[in-house]
Inverse folding.
């Protein structure tokens, strides 16, 4: 964006990303005076700039097709027009010393300049410029802003919100540094997955966590709860831009090392959704004070290969006319079930397709006329064989 004038309104900021499902803008500023006037949930916003020597960081969270992306726009400083004589007459003493006789009723400099140092210290800028830094308060407007960094280098503008007694902690870490989330367990039951999520803090936060959100890509969410019984709701979070599950009104979490657990169940009959959940690395967001941070965490761990992996069973064996194959998938996979003759030649395919962990599969086979066959059950992990016989 172009250089912004301090205190101006109607300034514009926009993203080039079009067609997203949602946009969410937030702003953090050194003096707390930068404000978003409109467009907080659209691709472009109108904002009001803060005071002189202030800076701001605008954060935009974009959600599209279930994915969330966050970017930041930093305005390092705004343009200060306070030096304009027409706008700020207080700067005239520095810019036009000829105004001092008009503003100062003391006319002694014209009558007796030798008496000025003793009689009228206000005339020192004309008679002794070396005394100005100490004796002339008109230098304060120029020096005052520079004194703040010396007294508290850049801490006052950036950390001003932390001076709030309701949100101030001894720690000095932002919400992107002092919170973390991990998936601690996933239990599967047919078409449903129950997740256990641990949210932790190292206790070094500037502000306590006010709410935590996790993006859910698909499915039906139910049975959600947390170990502290804080308020929870499902839907679009306007602050973080995440569509999913939110723990709200969190209290006293961030000032000392602590953790809480969130559990929820996601169910779906959609193969597409099951594929998304299989490769899901959840996106989470933290809100603490004026800070909003996003994080992508690791999803489910890969399941180690089970040496006693259940294999396909055939019954009755031997069979007369019809044979049934049955198995329960121990993980999401692509499998095939084929019938071979005694010499290993392919006779027919019984099943070929996707299977999902915890679901039971049963297929029937007929039209087998020979006395003996071999069936081959193949997955990505292993291939097993079995022998079937037909009663004549």
């Amino acid at each position: 964006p172009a250089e912004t004038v301090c205190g101006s309104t109607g300034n514009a900021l926009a993203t080039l990303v079009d067609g997203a499902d949602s946009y969410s803008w937030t702003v953090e500023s050194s003096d707390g005076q930068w404000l978003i006037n409109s467009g907080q949930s659209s691709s472009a916003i109108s904002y009001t700039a803060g005071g002189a020597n202030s800076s701001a960081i605008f954060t935009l969270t974009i959600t599209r097709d279930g994915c969330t992306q966050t970017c930041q726009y930093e305005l390092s400083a705004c343009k200060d027009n306070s030096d304009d004589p027409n706008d700020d007459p207080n700067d005239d003493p520095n810019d036009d010393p000829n105004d001092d006789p008009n503003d100062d009723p003391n006319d002694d400099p014209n009558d007796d300049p030798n008496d000025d140092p003793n009689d009228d210290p206000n005339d020192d800028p004309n008679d002794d410029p070396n005394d100005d830094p100490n004796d002339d308060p008109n230098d304060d407007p120029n020096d005052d802003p520079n004194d703040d960094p010396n007294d508290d280098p850049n801490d006052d503008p950036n950390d001003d919100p932390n001076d709030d007694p309701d949100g101030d902690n001894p720690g000095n870490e932002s919400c992107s540094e002092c919170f973390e989330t991990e998936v601690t367990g996933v239990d599967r039951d047919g078409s449903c997955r129950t997740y256990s999520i641990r949210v932790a803090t190292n206790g070094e936060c500037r502000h306590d966590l006010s709410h935590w959100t996790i993006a859910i890509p698909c499915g039906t969410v139910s049975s959600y709860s947390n170990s502290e019984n804080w308020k929870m709701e499902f839907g679009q979070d306007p602050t973080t831009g995440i569509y999913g599950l939110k723990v709200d009104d969190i209290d006293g979490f961030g000032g000392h090392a602590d953790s809480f657990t969130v559990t929820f169940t996601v169910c779906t009959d959609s193969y597409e959704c099951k594929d998304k959940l299989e490769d899901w690395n959840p996106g989470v967001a933290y809100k603490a004070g004026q800070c909003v941070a996003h994080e992508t965490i690791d999803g489910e761990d890969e399941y180690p290969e089970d040496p006693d992996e259940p294999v396909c069973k055939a019954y009755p064996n031997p069979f007369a006319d019809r044979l049934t194959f049955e198995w329960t998938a121990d993980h999401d996979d692509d499998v095939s079930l084929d019938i071979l003759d005694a010499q290993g030649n392919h006779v027919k395919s019984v099943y070929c397709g996707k299977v999902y962990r915890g679901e039971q599969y049963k297929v029937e086979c007929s039209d087998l006329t020979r006395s003996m066959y071999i069936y081959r059950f193949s997955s990505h992990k292993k291939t097993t064989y079995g022998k079937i016989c037909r009663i004549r």
Notes: The first strand starts at residue 11 and ends at 14.
